[in-house]
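Entry 14. Structure prediction run on the chain below.
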Amino acid sequence: MSKGVRFIRALSLTVAFMTVACITTRREPEGSRSDPHRPSYHFLPPANFICDAMGLIQWKGRYHLFYQYQPDSVVLAAGVWAHAVSDDLVHWKHLPLALVPTPGGPDSTGCCGGMTVDNDGVPTILYTGAVPGWPYTSRPCLSTGSDDLVTWSKHPSNPVIRDVPEGLDITGFRDHWVWREGDVWYQLVGSGIHGVGGTLPLYKSPDLIHWDYLGLLLTGDSEETDAMWECPEFFPLDGRQVLVVSGNPVAQVFYFVGSYAEQTYDCELRGRVDLGAHFYAPHTMLDDQGRRLMWGWLREGRSREAQRAVGWSGAISLPRVVSLDAAGRLRSEPAPELQVLRGRHFTLADIALADGELHTLDGVAGDRLEILAVFDAAQSDGVGLSVRCSPDGEEQTRITYSFMKDRFQLDCRKSSLDATTERLVTGGPLRLARGSALRIHVFLDGSTIEVFANGRPAASRIYPTRPDSVGIQLIGARGDSRLASLDVWEMRPIWAGTESIPDHP
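Output returned:
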């Protein structure tokens, strides 16, 4: 079992039993804001642990982001629902905690994954309530909000589903996706069957409170799509029906594309949502522009001891606009709103790259950058670029593509001299049409790297140790290749460094 898999397994099964006191006391450790690996234009709380984005909704024109948060530790616990709001998808304001555990209640050890819906003008959260015995004893709970989404009231009938489906030997029962068809609400719950694979119990309700079990929407093979499916997403997109699940314990995110009618889902193809190593538990929403937006958790790739030392852990990915290509495969691009963060600009065009040549960009460097490189189509191997490079190449992260083999690769093996960090090689096919150019779009932000290669995203975490590991190099392929254009922007921060999370109302 890989180090990354062991990390996610430990996270998924770890829980701390919290009290109201620990929820209302939030200490910010020394160094949490000064850590050079801390992102400056990604979303994250001022300190401590963040994981899943949840409950995304656009309400009265404003974007609301809820997220799993541990207010007093960098170690995952069942946690609370923290809350932030944005007018532009880029700059965020922290709001008071939305949901915290109720001592002795059906969420006494944590308020976990779920979503927010508009129930005829009433903002409503369906979430996972955790009690001792987690993760096997978690159940769906309901909470309704004030018109500004700041104050939330838990329903007295919680949990609204009290028992798991009879006859199923489940591996878990948590995380909820809810939608409406006419006057009927439907719900999927993330689950799995021991010895079989991930599965999704399907329920219906007239009022979000009383639920009837209908059966299993889809069941996977544990060898192909993992043993447990967390954080289900189920939505129409470009005339098809897309299902997204987060596989546990391997920590890969899978998508399925097919057709859906009368509570039956016919799956036609599947793939991976992200080709990197550290993107997990994505959540989506439909905004008033008709776009399907996705955020995911960028989990850490360094040790618990390192996380404790700096006092923070995790970040939320940049917002992505998802779509289907002509073949029905899921694609993602960064939300164009991010362009407002662009600062000083550098550009190049029409550069021939000889066989095996490394072209260092003089005067262009940084760890908070947006990079857009376009390479002409070629019968070549291994074209791309290296980022976060030290002058001698001792540290670097390579992003390459083979036109001949149709192989995209994000190579982090030399990303850090710190042997305790994860330094993985990930990737997959891009399936470019013959003659298509290669478009590599990179966002560097401290320890985060998010790459979009012709619509295929790959997110990872990197931790260079050298302060001079900020260079950029172009990589010439084995066989002549040409850079059509290169644009590099310095990126402005979205945080002033003085933010805090208001107390729970």
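The chain has four helices and 34 strands.
Filed with the rest of this week's runs.
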